[in-house]
Amino acid sequence: MEQRLESLFTPWKIGSCEIKNRIVLTSMGGTDLFGWMEKHHFDKAGAHFIMEVAKNNAGLVLPGCQPVYNPMFGQWLYKNEKMYQDLKKWLPEFHKTGAKLFIQLTAGFGRSFTISGMMETLYSNKALRVRSMRCTRGICWTSLH
Ligand SMILES: Cc1cc2nc3c(=O)[nH]c(=O)nc-3n(C[C@H](O)[C@H](O)[C@H](O)COP(=O)(O)O)c2cc1C
Questions:
Q1: What whole-number distance in Å separates Cα of residue 100 and Cα of residue 60?
Q2: How far does residue 112's CA lie from ligand 1's centre (Å)?
Q3: In 3-state terms, what secondary structure has residue 13?
Q4: Number of domains, the chain
């Protein structure tokens, strides 16, 4: 290996948490463990992708940001017990890779968020807009990350 790359394979720490190398999958909405812009659930496709990245020696894996309250359909993240049961079954396999997993929680999205066709429909249809504003009332619409 070229000497200039060697430091990539040295461990580092965040507080007391040691990460085996400096290869990190950054958070990208869509690579979520609990669903993205849809009803929260343990997302098997997301979990498969995250597992593959970990098996290919990433030291730290950050799934896409996870809304604590779903802005599209309005569920609290902490309330879906089945999803956490599924996660509990999956995690031991993930831990075998030696990678660490951090979940990035978000209260909403920043100004640079891309408006999808679905969101445009939601905003331009008055009935849907009123309904969705009721769902998101009390939620700060500012990105936390
Ligand atoms: C499709 C997509 C979704 C992203 N979602 C998130 C996110 O959920 N949270 C976050 O902090 N950054 C997010 N990012 C930013 C990336 O994590 C990364 O920081 C950014 O792409 C810059 O990395 P780079 O300089 O290696 O390209 C996203 C980027 C892309 C392309």
A1: 5
A2: 11
A3: strand
A4: 1
pLDDT in tens, 83-108: 999 999 999 999 999 999 999 998 87
- What is the 3-state secondary structure of 75-121? CEHHHCHHHHHHHHHHHHHHHCCCCEECCCEECCCCCCCCCCHHHHH
Tell me the CA–centroid distance for residue 5 and ligand 1, in Å: 23
The size of the chain, in residues, is 145
In a domain, 104, yes or no: yes
* Total-model pTM: 0.78
Distance of CA 101 to the CA centre of its chain: 10
Residues with a CB atom less than 6 Å from ligand 1: 26-30, 64-65, 104, 145
Cα 126 to ligand 1 centre (Å): 32
Residue 69 lies in domain: 3-136
The residues pairing with 13 across neighbouring beta strands, listed in sequence order, are 18
pLDDT tens, 105-131? 988 766 666 677 777 887 788 888 777
